[in-house]
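Need residues for this backbone.
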């Protein structure tokens, strides 16, 4: 009996410490990194609700689109709850005559609202969302097959909330790690994203205002949630993507590839995160990329692009493999700083950054500044030795 107890204890210890696990074998090669110059940064919001969601404070589609146009958004997805129309978003949000714009690329999608959490389906073209809605309670393998057949991007929404995403992340293309203007509520979302990266999943992180709170056309349609319109609305936060072109498909492709940055609002400067692998003083990779380490030190560069305060001091928190690596500060008319580290040649590693500083005014949604606090923006991860087949 004692030998059985001892054996069980040793087994438990092995499991809890990871003893006996096969060491990670880095891939022999990874695909070459795409051009860092052939593209354009586009900003938008991928999670917002209109009157077609029953809990949206009667928010008209035209007012959402008008605000997106006013703050110079490049793309927008009105992602109404599919269960509010029994899955038939194609004949509700998509065909709403107000869902048109001459300056903003309007995507197709909906919030996949299930008993096991929420996700946003994202597409450049119309697709059969009813098919995804109909398998919401099915097994993950069946859902994955439908999602693949539809050819959509599926993002896990606010995974750390009471509507936690309780599906397999193996058929998920991105994670909503920054949900709504209230930055402080996203700690668990960020933790889940870090866990995905630590497990070897090169999964992009995106933002989404998840705003339900617009101003209705007439006072009698006002609801108890309408007051939140000046606090959480279009672009709180704003998701930037480095797209090959200014097209719907290029936006979706960029999101899937992970060349993505998130800012507190449409006026907040974008975090630019790159790395120089060969020491020639020029960036070789950017956030969202995966590269083979050379065994030599790598110079990482962090900069803010856009409207900054020359008198302000900005703080950069560098995260490596889920842990705080270093904290830096920078200032000036064009805030920029570098740090150096040597990524392991025999293991996976990743680096990402968060930037804090004085909030950037958002005149159309002034209450959002207080909710976001000093959190300005974050990058996606620069990865090394991630298995491209995983």
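Answer:
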């Amino acid at each position: 009996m004692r030998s059985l107890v001892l054996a069980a204890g040793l087994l438990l210890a092995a499991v809890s410490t990871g003893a006996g696990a096969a060491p990670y074998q880095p891939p022999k090669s990874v695909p070459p990194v795409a051009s860092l110059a052939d593209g354009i940064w586009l900003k938008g919001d991928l999670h917002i609700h209109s009157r077609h969601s029953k809990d949206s404070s009667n928010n008209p589609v035209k007012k959402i689109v008008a605000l997106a146009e006013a703050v110079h958004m490049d793309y927008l997805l009105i992602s109404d709850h599919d269960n509010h129309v029994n899955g038939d978003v194609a004949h509700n949000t998509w065909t709403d005559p107000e869902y048109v714009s001459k300056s903003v690329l309007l995507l197709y999608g909906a919030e996949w609202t299930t008993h096991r959490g929420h996700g946003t389906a994202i597409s450049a073209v119309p697709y059969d969302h009813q098919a995804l809605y109909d398998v919401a309670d099915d097994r993950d393998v069946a859902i994955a097959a439908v999602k693949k057949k539809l050819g959509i991007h599926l993002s896990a929404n606010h995974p750390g909330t009471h509507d936690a995403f309780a599906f397999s992340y193996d058929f998920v293309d991105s994670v909503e790690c920054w949900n709504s203007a209230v930055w402080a509520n996203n700690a668990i979302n960020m933790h889940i994203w870090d866990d995905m990266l630590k497990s070897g999943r090169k999964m992009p992180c995106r933002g989404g205002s998840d705003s339900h709170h617009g101003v209705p056309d007439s006072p009698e349609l006002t609801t108890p949630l309408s007051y939140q319109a000046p606090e959480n609305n279009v672009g709180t936060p704003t998701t930037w993507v480095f797209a090959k072109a200014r097209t719907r498909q290029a936006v979706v492709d960029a999101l899937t590839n992970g060349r993505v940055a998130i800012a507190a609002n449409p006026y907040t400067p974008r975090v630019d995160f790159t790395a120089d692998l060969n020491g020639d003083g020029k960036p070789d990779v950017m956030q969202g990329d995966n590269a083979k380490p050379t065994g030599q030190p790598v110079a990482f560069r962090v900069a803010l692009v856009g409207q900054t305060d020359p008198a302000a001091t900005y703080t950069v928190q560098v995260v490596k493999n889920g842990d705080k690596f270093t904290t830096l500060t920078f200032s000036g008319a064009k805030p920029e700083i570098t740090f150096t580290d040597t990524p392991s040649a025999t293991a996976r590693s990743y680096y990402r950054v968060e930037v804090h500083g004085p909030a950037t005014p958002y005149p159309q949604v002034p209450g959002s500044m207080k909710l976001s606090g000093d959190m300005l923006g974050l990058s996606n991860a620069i990865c090394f030795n991630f298995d491209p087949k995983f």
